Amino acid sequence: MKVLIVARTKMHGKNRCISGLADDNRSIRLLTADGQPWQNDSPFEVGEIWDMDFQPSQDLVPPHLEDVVVSRHRFLREQPNLKRHLLNRVTPWKGGIDQIFDGALDYTMHDNGYVCKRLGLPSLSTGFWLPDRDLILREDGKHYDYKDGVWRRGLSYVGEEPKPPVVLHTETLVRVSLARWWKPENASPDFEERCYAQLSGWYV
User: Fold this and answer.
1) Which end of the chain is more exposed for a tag (fewer CB within 10 A), N or C?
2) pTM of the prediction?
3) Quick check: 61 and 125 in contact, CB under 8 A?
């Protein structure tokens, strides 16, 4: 099946979450033949089309239902006009940050978005968004904030661009996702696992 590579998301170490859009418009996350994340030297780059054989992972854990194990891959070509192409194929979330991930995001005391089982999980863990406000890069260079006056809500920036733009302007098409389940190693037993909201890229 043909697969368009739409995102490369940084994980821990050299691991990368490679996301694609299959010919049937399924959103998929690519795993190696042994079910592991690809590394930073993965051959897949955003905007490329590959011919692949893959099967759903046997270890799906909601909300990460997009994982597939790739058994064969062959480069075909690059996709021109990527933003226009995506908007012709997908239905992005539109409006405020409360529209993404089925409105399931809650926020930490530092205004970083996440989902958890206690509050209900969204039906998917990847998507596209056309925000109705500018997204502003924090001074830490690690988060983009959706601001409404003094109120802000943030997404971790996990893309590979070393110098991301300070502002992603209103209605820039962006790629958002949910990180894998996580909690601090020294957390108390009653600390809930969370999937943090991420921004991995944009399309112009």
Assistant:
1) C
2) 0.94
3) no
